[in-house]
Fold these 2 entries.
Entry 1:
Amino acid sequence: MFIQKLKTICLLLTFCILPACSLVGETTDPVSKQPQQLKINQGFVNPIGFYDATPNFSWQLPQIEQSIQQSRYQIVVASNPELLPNQPDLWDSQVVTSNQTTFIDYQGKALTSRQKVYWQVKYWDQHGQPSNWSEIAHFELGLLSNQDWQAQWIEIDNQQPIKLNKFKTPIHIPQHLRTEFASNKTINKARLYITAKGVFEAFINGKKIGDDILTPGYTPYKKRIETLTYDVTNMINQGKNAFGIQLAEGWYAGRFGPKRHWHKKLELTPKVLAQLEIEFVDGSKQLVITDKNWCATQNGPVRTSGLYDGERYDANFELIDNKTAWHQVGYPTSSWQAVKTTTLEQDVLLTPKRHFTSKNKEELPALSVTKVADKYIFDLGQNMVGVPRIKIPMLKGQTLNLRFAEGINADGSLYTKNLGSAKQLDFYTAKQDGVVEWQPQFTFHGFRYVEISGFDESYQPQTSWVTGIVQYTDFALAGSFVSSNNQLNQLQSNIEWGLKGNFLDIPTDCPQRSERLGWTGDALAFANTSLFVADSHAFWAAWMQSIREEQFENHGVPVVVPNEVGEIVQAGWSDAAVTIPWDVYWRTGDTDILAENYDMMTRWIKYHQGQLKDGISHMWTVGDWLQPYSTMPDSRRGETDNTLISSAFYARSLDLVARTAKVLGKQQDWQDYQRLFEQAKRDFQQHFFDANGRLKVGIQTQTAYLLAIGFDLLDAETTQKAVPHLLAQFDAAGGHLRTGFLGTPLIAPVLDKIGRADVALDLVFKQSYPSWLYSVSQGATTMWERWDGFTFDKGYAKKAGSLNHYAYGAIGQWLYDRLAGISPLTAGYQNIRIAPIVTEHLSFVEASYQSPHGLISSKWQLNSSTVTLDIVIPANTTAQVEIPTHIFNKQEQNKASRTTKLTGDVSLNGQPIKQSLPSNNQLTLTAGKYKIEVKR
Ligand code: BGC
């Protein structure tokens, strides 16, 4: 209480700016004052096999009672922890006057492959008081260049692919490859560097290395393949060792992507590359590499495994001889074959993985099991992506058949129509009677329901027989959002599951049908939302590298990355090349993402310019994809004029490239792109809008107005005039949305921007089709591709759609930024905007976000006499709090006014502050916990 009072006094004394004032109970415990959360680049904590020899450093100030601001910092970097902090042999930043705590570039001696580096940081607070040095953090570089590899690609000699009649693509039977080696001295450390053209799991002495899945992941394999590094020091015996690798087709060699491009894969066969480097205590080294000395077989238990089609396991083929397994020492290999080696291509870069691997992240127990015809269907209660883990009694020789689906038909059977040609089928053949425990290794499925048949029928199926193993990229969830409305909470959960389901190494459109591709337009829609939901900074930065690599020579950017679809470039999709780096920068404060992508972004502008005729773009686009009630011949395409869409995105990309140039200090470019943006705006307005702000080209649509206003393409006066026309479009639709992939993300932000958050709220809380809560009311547990993916009365949409498509989850951004009220005021949240919208639709909203500076949280509650805000601001930041001045009423109450004014009677931490509030009702606060009450 006393602390709160003191904070208030500080506030009153400083004209509404709460400075960092010394508060009671100032801790003398030096540890609690140390910098914390030491990370490098996009959030890596003490990584090994790191990808970047010129890293940058980030830390957080401690979140303690005092409001600390950093005034100076010092970073020291050394090759040995004993040299820290006083003899940093690699770099000493010296004392730098700055409040920056994120992405500080290393500027020391050149670092090399395998090098282990130690670092520490300290800061001085606003009073000039130094903190203690932080704990020592470290990183170890991976193999940074192809020259570091002595290993060769290996694969079984004379591979036996079997032809699939229907698709005419080869199925590559998974391989087991092995070698043995002796290490006769005491081991100091051992590292395994490994990757595959395909997907692999590696084993030493019978134990799996690491807990990653589907490694190395999915990049443009012709340009770059990511490598993994594992610390295997404790897995190697002094004496004999066995080293085994399982290899399957994965994204690289499997039936993946659109059918018309499968012929390109006909010649590709899976290969693996591994280099085990052992260092002994005496300083000597041993190298075990993939080479001619390995042997291989395709007669293992994983008979087939493909990403779309599933996995077939036959336990009769298990590679065990007299209790010795194939990956253990002494296993006989007389029936195994030689391997074929291929030398490394110099133009395919082998680079350490630059984001996090995928893992088994969560387990979903089955909630029920129902008999339908003579099959049993398990319901996990949640549409998910990953594999099943089964524990099922079987009889020798039986083959268990597992089928997967996102939904069920009216008769309770599996709904698989939306899977396209992806079979998603797993099989397990038992070699003896007993309970089988199994989880597929080299495939993934999108499903909520699992159907099984072919087990020991003397047992009654139990829910414990099937568990859903949820797999996605190993990042932490960063944001939370909960409100008093269960449907809104379900929507939030669906958005979160849309991310979990489509962030398996790359951002995908959907995870279940024969597609699962890195569609750029879907990513463009969802990136901002995803950056709140999860710490997806590294994930996006890695995918942007793939986009750079896939950019065409004519500067076009493909619609799918890695590119599996050929030379297709499309407005509103390919613009992700510009919008996503900007979104990532804005949410994280990382200017590297802009610097790394700047060249691609400006080349993309050139491509755009090549599509202009008299200032209007004629770039190809499928348009406002999946707009409901479209009258176009192909009803998947929205009604908004294509040239309007392409011209709007040209201008939008110019605007963001101009801003990027400014951030990067490229003055001339900034001015040039700014000028081009102004010109593009003028052309846009003149061509598409009349003097009354009314659209004059093509069909009147919500999306046309949303793009124009959302991208700031009309002058102020015309914008004002366009507003009634936009609102008329919502009225004409009975207060519903009529937008597809391009318009939907803009609805709420644009309505909010024009001062009509009330209309945005009406749309967000709408229950009837099409709306966000409509799918919730129809039982959705993920975001759907189509607004009417399933309806209780009509069943599944006629044009079968994916039930796990994140694009419409883009509404999340507005829920977090405005309904909860947490958004960055400057890039990376060093200045935070807390501006919640309070509405009678809800009695509370509570959200939090793990920002680069620490936890931000915002909660508002509405009761009969007050609106209460509880806010937490992290150290070294300031927040501008916009104190609510009114409550948004519910539409159906038919009140004359759409808002109810609050009294303006405001208290901060129990102290009235009405008089000291500026007229705009804004407070600037520094780190701390605050309670603001506004009387109704
Ligand atoms: C994908 C979409 C994508 C679209 C573009 C679809 O097949 O699933 O999400 O953006 O094609 O044409």
Note: The pocket of beta-D-glucopyranose is lined by residues 509-510, 515, 519, 521-522, 622, 625, 805 (CB under 6 Å).
Entry 2:
Amino acid sequence: MSQPFPFDPAQIFGIAGELLGVEPLTSGHINRTYKLQFPKTSIVLQKVNTAIFRDIDGLMGNIFTVTEYLRTQLAAIGGDVDREGLHFLRTVDGALYYQDAGGGSWRAYRFVANSYTVQKIDRPETFTRAGRAFGRFGRLLTDFDGASLAENLPDFHNTPVRFAQLQEAVKQNAAGRKDSALPEINFAAEREEQYGRLVVLQAEDKLPVRVTHNDTKLNNVVFDKLTGGALCVIDLDTVMPGLSAYDFGDAIRFGANTAAEDERDISKVSLNLELFAAYAKGYLSEAGSSLTQTEREVLPFGAWLMTVECGMRFLADYLNGDIYFHTDYPEHNLVRARTQFALAADMERKMGEMERIVSEFSLMHRLHSVTISPC
Ligand code: GN1
Ligand code: MG
């Protein structure tokens, strides 16, 4: 069959059999992703966005090191190494990725058989399962040496830096869009004194630096078609040293929103507290015992912070002329920023309740011991 690739993936990555089908997977905003069907296996093939990930060797080195480490950890706790861990393929030449004649960088991993991903929560239990998967991911990496990782996107969740980048985008007004985004620019500016809270606690050694996923969207969790349980997490591009509040927070930002990330009708946007509680329950049941009390205390704030931060990133990209995130229409990034800010405003109203929920589950799981129950 004809392929949208300038090479033969089967030959390059040593996959047996004829390519039967190609399906684009379009939920990511950065890389180009395809699912390839072969007679006996499915493969995910991705063209990495090297304008963003400039150090492709560092990136792929991280991914192989982390996935291999996770497999060892999974084996040690009796997990299913093939389905609960990702398996990246080397090229037949032994390389970690393939560079095509035009300079494009491609990587491949095995699609987990009988699995699916979701864009929106159908019922709270699904989100609890996602929480367990990300909580477990963090816990399994507790002893992994973060210093061995290339920091691909430095200051990725450094919110004061993200605010400074937004201010710069406002100043440059490169796409001439500033006047159409004044309420959003003001929303971000009014909250500036909050942005340093976590990085200050980190600098004071009151929050430990961990190896975190940093992009904990619901659609980065792989679920089992047979049981509905969460198997593993994908999209390891941003695995870097970070704070647990970033991973908890970004998951809430995306999954506990009553609307889509790019919903145009702001009145549909709010924080679903039931979903918030569902995720907190799952996350803390896996990660709770390895987190310090301060880490647990700042989780609700992390949800707010990641939401405002993501809004600032969308807004800065709108002002810069859509040079970072893939967009489908000219105001797409502005719509996304508005959605994030509406969600953050709702979290401000519900912060007391969010804190109460987290403290309740923290008490429950403080003495939780490590188990190998399925997610
Ligand atoms: C990007 O491509 P995707 O959807 O996995 C972004 C995340 C944002 C997210 C917003 C490397 O992730 O940080 O939170 O969009 N990834 C990168 O939807 O910037
Ligand atoms: Mg991602």
Note: Confidence is low (pLDDT under 50) at residues 368-372.
